[in-house]
Design a protein that fits this description.
The complex is a heterodimer of chains A (about 300) and B (about 350). With about 300 residues, chain A is mainly alpha-helical. Chain A is built from 13 helices and 1 strand, in the order ααβααααααααααα. The chains are: A mainly alpha (about 300), B mainly alpha (about 350).
Chain lengths: ~300, ~350
């Protein structure tokens, strides 16, 4: 075990921290008080993930064995029960499992809606609109309960409706323009959503989640174009432009992750362009060595500047 | 460390730990160190740099391993000595990739003992960089060697891994001065049960069936009980987490003893796990001493991992009967999206 009690005592005696803070931290160091809150949260999350996995497997294996109505009704009732529990708990003292019961409700609702559409074809040729319904349902739930976890499901459903989530690797190479177009469109929708959310709710905690989704969607759109020979120049140009934007955003709002995005995605785009132009293996290896070292130095300097600004 | 191998002193390491505990205080240290994400990025970039260096000299038919190792380790030591880099990810990435490049440059003998050479390289890098991850990787490679050497017997790897876990757990009871030593021991306690079990799975995976191995489950169960008892007695969260992992591995190994479909077992396990968490949190909600459930801030990485997990576990599939009909893009020329997943919805699951 490690004990920082001597250092904490010194800090307390020098007045760097107050007595109450010192007492609390020393109690933690002595293990008189040990919070297992993070572990229990993780355990609850793991439980929800296992249930969701099991339900998905159950549906796929029993599509024809059990009546579809029974499957849809059972999962639907379970989802409604979880939503009802979350609603019941909303006005009461917050408990550790609350977030995850809500998450389970959302996952079960997704599975149920997906199953109903798969089996009954309610939307016919427009089947994918059930993703839009889910995006709206999860968004409403996320706002009502202020849940970032459920919001992530909503954005994922939106991406699926726009046809870019979980596309296979083949689609990146077979239909790069379409895939990239859908990714850019989704990124724009997420940015607009973020702007409206920020304008309507200044105290929102969702902005960073929107930012990361939008940035990664846009970068992946650019790299999808760059992966295809015919669209490579425009794909690389877009990715480099996005990297510049990401760098400016990262510096403006002191967000180190966006500086990392800028260097990593930007370097990949530049590497694709240059390696495409060079045909000598030795020169490609030499160039990659130089570009990687340049990326390391660049990221190091950018991060040092960001630290100085902070 | 010392004048031959400079690095943060005990006091400097402790000061950095203190700063994490009390973020407001100012700690003077000459060493540059970064957060987890940046360290991972720098390590990956350093690995790419060493790989391309290795590839470049390979194409030139020059002694690639020796040159790569000399350049990487030389640069890492220069960064440490001249610019006080330590735990930035760059110097540690260069060190481990340098040692690995040296080994890759040697003529291959095809013997399993080669794994031990990589373990020694990881251990050397871990010792020099005082890097928990490299130290744990070295130990994992030792377990991998045992599993490869006695590839028809799962028990040697399993017993060794669990013995290391228990020894590390007991060692954690001692008061350590360096936080990095404590982190290394905690890493061993967490990684070894899972490593030992995964090694036995890999040994058996290429066979026709994967029958239940009761001795393996018993070892995991015994370790779990020991770690759990120690965790409760010493109020050590790491031991409790490791005990939970061991229990999960034992439950997976004993899965065939319960004659239910996989999905039922998954749902039952999920309900059980969530119920345990809820019951514990309710039992401890008024506790002010010993184990408590005082909320602590969930870090950005924790949330990112949870969201990543949600998006991964959420069911997905591709029904043959459906064609994507989302908003059509004017430039759509390729096949439409048939993916049937997103936000947990899907038919294929």
């Amino acid at each position: 075990m490690l004990s920082l009690e001597p250092e904490l005592t010194t800090l307390r005696d020098s007045g760097a921290i107050d007595d109450a803070t010192a007492a609390r931290l020393i109690a933690i160091e002595r293990r008189e008080v040990v919070s297992i809150y993070p572990e229990l949260r993780l355990l609850t999350w793991a439980g929800v993930m296992l249930i969701s996995w099991g339900v998905g497997l159950y549906i796929s294996k029993h599509l024809d064995d059990i009546g579809p109505l029974a499957i849809a009704a059972t999962i639907g009732i379970a989802a409604i029960a979880c939503y009802a529990w979350s609603l019941f708990k909303r006005s009461r003292q917050a408990a550790l499992a609350d977030d995850y019961v809500l998450l389970l409700a959302a996952l079960l609702a997704s599975a149920d809606v997906g199953y109903i559409e798969h089996h009954y074809h309610l939307l016919g040729a427009s089947w994918s609109r059930h993703f839009l319904f889910l995006a709206l349902l999860h968004a409403a739930t996320a706002y009502f309960f202020n849940s970032r976890l459920v919001l992530s499901l909503s954005v994922a459903s939106l991406a699926a409706w726009l046809g870019i989530e979980r596309r296979t690797v083949d689609s990146i190479f077979d239909a790069p323009v379409e895939t990239a177009g859908r990714a850019f469109l989704c990124a724009v929708v997420v940015i607009l959503w973020r702007l409206i959310d920020r304008a309507v709710r200044p105290a929102t905690t969702f902005s960073s989640l929107f930012d990361h989704f939008a940035a990664n969607l846009a970068f992946w759109g650019g790299l999808t174009l760059a992966a295809h020979k015919e669209t490579r120049p425009i794909g690389c140009a877009i990715t480099i432009a996005l990297a510049v934007a990401s760098m400016l955003y990262g510096r403006r709002f002191r967000e180190g992750t966006f500086v990392i995005y800028a260097w990593v995605y930007g370097t990949i785009a530049v590497d694709i362009v240059i390696c495409d132009a060079i045909h000598e293996e030795v020169l490609i290896a030499l160039y990659l060595l130089v570009s990687t070292i340049a990326a390391i130095i660049g990221l190091f300097i950018s991060h040092a500047r960001l630290r100085r600004l902070a | 460390m010392n004048e031959w191998f400079p690095g943060p002193s005990v006091a400097e390491e402790r000061a950095e730990s203190l700063q994490r505990l009390v973020p407001g205080i100012k700690v003077e240290t000459p060493w540059k160190h970064y957060g987890m994400l940046l360290r991972i990025v720098f390590t990956v970039l350093a690995a790419i740099a060493v790989s391309t260096f290795f590839g470049f000299f390979s194409l030139l038919m020059m002694p690639k391993g020796l040159l790569s190792a000399a350049a990487a380790i030389g640069t890492a030591e220069w960064l440490i000595r001249k610019h006080h880099f330590f735990r930035t990810g760059i110097e540690s990435g260069l060190w481990i990739c340098g040692t690995f490049a040296f080994i890759f440059g040697l003529p291959s003998s095809g013997k399993v003992e080669a794994i031990l050479v990589f373990a020694a390289a990881a251990a050397l890098s871990g010792w020099r960089m005082r890097n928990t991850f490299f130290g744990v990787v070295a130990t994992i490679l030792v377990i991998a060697y045992i599993a490869a050497k006695w590839n028809h017997q799962p028990l040697p790897a399993m017993i060794t891994a669990e013995a290391i876990a228990i020894a590390a757990a007991i060692a954690l009871r001692r008061v350590w001065q360096r936080p990095s030593t404590e982190q290394f021991l905690a890493g061993l306690v967490l990684a070894m049960p899972v490593t030992g079990y995964v090694a036995t799975i890999i040994q058996r995976i290429f066979k026709d069936s994967l029958p239940t191995n009761v001795p393996v489950a018993l070892i995991l169960g015994t370790t779990s009980i020991v770690l759990f008892a120690c965790g409760i007695a010493w109020r050590d969260r790491v031991l409790l987490v490791s005990a939970t992992l061991s229990t999960a591995c034992a439950a997976i190994e004993l899965r065939d003893l319960f004659d239910y479909p996989t999905e039922v077992k998954l749902i039952a396990a999920g309900v059980l796990v969530a119920a345990i968490a809820v019951i514990l949190s309710r039992m401890l909600r008024n506790a002010t001493h010993g184990f408590v459930v005082t909320p602590v801030r969930v870090g950005a990485y924790d949330e990112a991992m949870q969201i990543g997990g949600i998006l991964t576990v959420a069911p997905h599939g591709a029904p043959a009967s459906h064609q994507h009909s989302g908003p059509d893009l004017s430039d759509s020329a390729g096949p439409t999206d048939k993916s049937y997943g997103g936000g947990g919805a899907g038919g294929g699951f």
